């Protein structure tokens, strides 16, 4: 059955393309945060271990919401490491940095995801896709808040 939600196919595809970048950023940030949760050491262990757990759970839920929004637009969502690697702007960390570097990397990742969110909102607004714009506005606020909280640890 053909989709008819009031957004033209080319506009749905344009929004989904941007949402796919946000999904890749979200999943990449999820992986990094979860790895840091497992591998944190030092005097900040307990607080950061718990903080990172809250953050990776939030990112996991967000990834599902973003992927489902892509499907609502009748586009297939990316779902492999190779696809995410091509779409994300977040740098992979293959080592185990000290805690301050972990926090700095997560600040940078959330700021990147916030910038990606802004791009999605622009495209969604141009397409008349209030549903995507609304969802991503919530994501933008979450990334900005998390970046602020993490950045405060480094002050």
From TrEMBL:
For the Ferritin/DPS domain, which residue ranges apply? Answer: 17-154
Q: Which SUPFAM superfamilies match?
A: Ferritin-like
> Which PANTHER family did the record assign?
DNA PROTECTION DURING STARVATION PROTEIN, GENERAL STRESS PROTEIN 20U
Matching entries from Pfam families are given as:
Ferritin
**PROSITE patterns xref list:** DPS_1
Q: Which family does it belong to?
A: Belongs to the Dps family.
Name-wise, this protein is Ferritin/DPS domain-containing protein
- List, in alphabetical order, the Gene Ontology terms for molecular function in this entry: ferric iron binding; oxidoreductase activity, acting on metal ions
């Amino acid at each position: 059955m053909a989709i008819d939600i009031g957004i033209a196919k080319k506009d749905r595809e344009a929004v989904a393309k941007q949402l796919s970048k946000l999904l890749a950023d979200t999943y990449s940030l999820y992986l990094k945060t979860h790895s840091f949760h497992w591998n944190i050491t030092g005097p900040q262990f307990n607080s950061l271990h718990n903080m990172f757990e809250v953050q990776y759970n939030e990112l996991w839920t967000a990834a599902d919401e973003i992927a489902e929004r892509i499907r609502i637009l009748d586009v297939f969502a990316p779902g492999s490491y190779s696809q995410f690697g091509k779409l994300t702007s977040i740098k992979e960390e293959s080592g185990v940095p000290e805690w301050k570097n972990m926090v700095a990397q997560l600040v940078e990742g959330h700021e990147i995801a916030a910038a990606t969110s802004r791009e999605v909102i622009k495209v969604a607004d141009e397409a008349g896709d209030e549903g995507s714009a609304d969802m991503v506005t919530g994501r933008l606020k979450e990334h900005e808040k998390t970046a602020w909280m993490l950045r405060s640890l480094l002050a």
